Amino acid sequence: MPVGERESLTGLISMLLVMILFAWRLNGLHAAGAFDGADALQVWARAVLILIGVSIGIAIVVHVAVHLLLSVLTGDDLDERRDERDHLIERRALTWGWYLLSFGILGIVVDLALGASGLRALNLMIALCAGSEALKDAVKLWLYRREA
Amino acid sequence: MAQIENRIRRLRFDAGEMTQKELADRVGVTRQTILAIENGKYSPTLELAFRIARTFNVGIDDVFTFLE
């Protein structure tokens, strides 16, 4: 399995776990009324910064676990080389991620113009960033499978 | 449908049944890229095409054919 394909697989798994973690934590804070005060944005920002730190840890653990699992399953050394095909697939997948991100930001701006709160916009922005990254990884996996 | 045909599999066979991995190592790409090229799923850059041709000591026309 090429390094790019492996990365997109670990990226998708990590992103799924991180999105569940974000939704659970932010929903819990919201239910507890942490975002009701005047300092709601600061509370939100602190919570997100902590979650980003935890997410990096999750990504490292998933990366190592997938690497070990694939080494055992395939029974040989994994190719760490990245060549022109990997770069081409990366660029194509990135384009799709950017489409989602661009149109999503436009949607959030429209949502704000229609009266949505800043907190809602920030939550949507986090979800959008995670979604575009997940889309990029999914497109990469599909391109690797299609062109295998 | 691929517009470029190639004879890499045949050339590998003629070169003492060179494996895809050996060819990949010699031209500096992954085995999966050689596999994709052989199957007509990926068209290599001109640079890689020349490197593949040089590996077999043939001209680029002997490896790749562009279908009009």
Question: Which structural traits does this protein have?
Answer:
A: 148 residues; mainly alpha; B: mainly alpha; two-stranded antiparallel sheet
Describe this structure in words.
The complex is a heterodimer of chains A (148) and B (68). Chain A is mostly helical. Helices cover 83% and strands 0% of the residues of chain A. Chain A has four helices and no strands. In chain A, helix 1 runs antiparallel to helix 2 (40-74), helix 1 runs antiparallel to helix 4 (118-146) and helix 3 (84-113) runs antiparallel to helix 4. Chain A is flat and about 55 Å long. The N and C termini of chain A lie close together (10 Å). The model of chain A has no long low-confidence stretch (mean pLDDT 90). Chain B is mainly alpha-helical and 68 residues long. Chain B has helices at 8-14, 20-27, 31-38, 46-55, 60-63; strands at 4-6, 64-66. In chain B, strands 1-2 form a two-stranded antiparallel sheet. The two termini of chain B are 12 Å apart. The model of chain B has no long low-confidence stretch (mean pLDDT 91). Classes of the chains: A mainly alpha (148), B mainly alpha (68). Chains A and B meet through helix 3 of A and helix 3 of B.
Number of helices of chain A: 4
Name the average pLDDT of chain A: 90
Beta-strand residue fraction of chain A: under 5%
Taking the sheet with the most strands of chain B, its summary is:
2 strands, antiparallel
Helical coverage of chain B, percent range = 40-55%
Runs of chain B in which pLDDT lies below 50 for 5 or more consecutive residues are: none
Gap between N and C termini of chain A, in Å? 10 Å
Share in β-strands of chain B: 5-15%
**Shape of chain A, please?**
flat
Please count the beta strands of chain B (DSSP E, at least 2 residues each). Answer: 2
Oligomerization state: heterodimer
- The spatial strand order of the largest sheet of chain B comes to 1-2
What is the molecular shape of chain B?
globular
- The percent of residues in helical segments of chain A reads over 70%
Roughly how many Å is the radius of gyration of chain A?
18 Å
**SS-derived structural category of chain A:** mainly alpha
The count of strands of chain A amounts to 0
**What's the total helix number of chain B?**
5
Order of helices and strands of chain B: EHHHHHE
Intertermini distance of chain B: 12 Å
Computed structural class of chain B: mainly alpha
